[in-house]
Amino acid sequence: MRENKNQIRVSLVEDNGGLRNSLERILSSSEGMTLEGVFSDGESAVAGLPAVSPDVVLVDINLPGISGIDVIREAKASMPRAQFLVLTVYDDPSRIFQALAAGANGYLLKRVDPRELLDAIRELHGGGSPMSGSVARKVVQSFHRMGVSKNETENLSPRETEILQLLAEGYLYKEIAEKCAIGIETVRTYIRRIYDKLHVRTRTEAVIKHLKGW
Amino acid sequence: MCMQMCVAAVEAAASDAFSVQRWTVADGLPGNVVTALVKSPEGDIIVMTSDGAAHFDGVRFSVCCAERCGNHCDAVSGQKEQCRLVESNGVVWVGTNGEGLLRIRQRLVVPKVPQKDGSGNVCFRDSFGRIWSGLEQDGVAVACQDGTIRSFSATEGLLAKDVTSFAETPDGDIWVGSNGSGLWRISGDEAVRFHYSDDPACDFVQALFCDSEGTLWICAHGDIVTCISDGYSKTLHLEKVQDSVAFSFHEEPMGRIWLATGEKLLSFMSSDFKETPGDSVDALAVDLFASSAGMSAPCAILEAGRSATVSFHSMDEVSFRYSADSPGMADCIEFATCLSPIENDWRASGKARIRSCGRLAPGRYKFEVRARLPLGVWGRTDAVEFEVRPMFYETISFIVAVLISVLAFLFAVARAVYVRRVRMRLAAIRQRDVLSLERARIARDIHDDIGARLTRISMLISMMAERNSEASDIAEEVRAVVHALDEVVWAVEPRNDTLSSFVDYIYHYAEMFVEASGLNLRVKFPEDVPDSGVSSVVRHAVYMCVKEALNNVVKHAEASKVFIGMVVDGNRVVMRIGDDGKGFTVSRNGGNGLHNMRTRMESICGLFSIRPRAEGGSEVVLEFRMEDRQVRT
Lengths: 214, 633
Hints:
The complex is a heterodimer.
Chain A: E1 8-13, H1 17-28, E2 33-39, H2 42-52, E3 56-60, H3 68-78, E4 83-88, H4 93-102, E5 106-109, H5 114-125, H6 133-146, H7 158-168, H8 173-180, H9 184-204, H10 208-212
Parallel strand pairs in A: 1-2, 1-3, 3-4, 4-5
Helix pairs in contact in A: 2-3, 3-4, 4-6, 6-7, 7-9, 8-9
Chain B: E1 34-39, E2 45-49, E3 52-56, E4 61-63, H1 66-77, E5 81-86, E6 92-96, E7 101-105, E8 108-113, E9 120-125, E10 131-135, E11 140-143, E12 149-152, E13 163-168, E14 174-178, E15 183-187, E16 190-194, E17 205-210, E18 216-220, E19 224-229, E20 232-237, E21 246-252, E22 256-261, E23 265-269, H2 271-274, E24 279-280, E25 287-292, E26 300-302, E27 309-313, E28 318-323, E29 334-340, E30 347-350, E31 354-358, E32 363-372, E33 382-389, H3 396-465, H4 469-492, H5 499-517, E34 520-524, H6 536-557, E35 561-569, E36 572-579, H7 592-603, E37 607-612, E38 618-625
Parallel strand pairs in B: 27-33, 34-35
Antiparallel strand pairs in B: 1-2, 2-3, 3-4, 5-6, 6-7, 7-8, 9-10, 10-11, 11-12, 13-14, 14-15, 15-16, 17-18, 18-19, 19-20, 20-24, 21-22, 22-23, 25-26, 25-28, 28-31, 29-30, 29-32, 32-33, 35-36, 36-38, 37-38
């Protein structure tokens, strides 16, 4: 039962008990969000998440049993509106990208400041979609490898391609906004659309076997 | 001389083995002196006698055309005819006394061979159509079909005088009988006296005849009929009538031979003579010695007519010695030899009494030898059978054994090399696998355990930091430790041993580092980076250089942009880290960082350089090589 319409309903999937406790405390004590649904492994998360139907799910990539990436893929299919934020201890670009391709919209290193963690959750819920240059580069690669889809709506538009390319070359959002003479929010919208298309294409193209090579 | 004999009266002659029929004047012959026997074109037999010719119809004789022919010839030549011959086409040849040879055809008489002194007392047509004419004084003359005349006399080696008869044997040789100078054989251009009996009476040959089976019949003085067949001779004494003269033979189908003599006509079956083997004409005993080179004593000595078996080795030079003897003629003996199965016919060996065959291939052989007097009849064949045994290294079993040994040896060597190589490769793979597993385990342990604990510490301290300012320093330090751990995990994790993974990590690091410094990053990486292997040593060295270069840019270059680029050419990778700052000066970072970078790149056989960029600022260039293998993680 929702207490407040503005409250962000957050779920957590984390296997490490100590870390889970810390995160639970941080999340439940913060303003503007409620923690609903805490899971310690992937199987129970896949089974339990649809019932909770949270706005944002924090998922640890490294889980016993099915991995966080699999959890995201399964849960995203049943809850397309939910936003997934990947938690990872260390920077492994290929693992992070696999999670993003499976349906996540952002990732966080576990060592971030608790304040940054809460900011990231709020930004994600507010429609923001962070995409770093290195992730953009992998997105360019994966669209390139998947080729052109028969379904026109699944392909990137010329503008989306341009923005993704700039991002991959290291341009920041505000630099892209200046260069393309558009607002920074518009850039965020484009990035979000690129994420959506990536998720759709990844599901339809069974790109997992491609991604395994990365 | 006139002996009354009954027609078809069969008398036991000197030999009981055959029968003789006789006809005389009383039986219808015009005279008892029978000079010639010819066959008429109709196939009848015409008997020439001193008193005319008679025609034999199979039962009785009747006087026939001889008168007419005789008259005709007399009319032409006026000379008494000595002999005649009727050809199947009707041409009659007449030998005259002192007038040479005549040919009578279609009642035309053409003098053909006028003789200066001799008389043509016999004529003979051979299978080539040549007409042979005997001369009383000196040899024979032969008229060929093309009209040429050739004579054989003392100058050609033919010492026969008073030729009485001719015969042709199937081998094409012409036999010449003479009255007093023996029997001669003309083979090609050569004439040789033929010795077939030690009896001097045999020099008086009165008639010769070769029957359809190739047997040569000789009627010599003293009622001797000698038959030469297949190299053997048999002497028959028909009748003991001293002064009788034989004139002519004739053969009927079924092998009946007719013989006309001065006083009677004889008839007998040729088979009667052939049933019993006779003595060799040239009864030459051949002694055969087989020997191998280097051995003075022969391996085998054969008595005449026996075979023996000897053995040689294939290394032996095989030779044969043989000899034969004929009283008074030993030096003239000719030999023929045959080494079967190499030779399938007799080979003339001349007068040599040794034949060397050299080395022979292993196998069974038969060496045969026979001898004869010049142009005589071949004597009995002697033979030696022998076996040439292979040397031990020529035997099939030896060759097979050697081949098998060689193959087995090669196989063993190849297998040993293969097994060794496979083992080494296996060991290398196993070692690499063990190492990879170990590295993965270390990475996992650090990540799962230490990483998580440190993260929690970091989080707890962060919460504390809101109340305690020192705690935020500790939190910062812990975060740095986690980051350092990150780098160790990344370096150790074998999954990252590829260029593509390396590039991802470099980019990831660069964007975090540059973002924190407030600079702008420009990245130029190839879209598709090969999966070629980059060992953790190389990765680590290059990564540390990139870190150092980025650090230099952020701290010293006073730049607004950082450029990172990479080019892959085969397995050579060139990485550039540039800036748009104030440019490169050696004193910028005291040279220590540059020295470190150079040392690191040299330790992985790479290249390091730093130079100004064309657009301003400077850049560090790192060049290194990837492994050839493709890595699939």
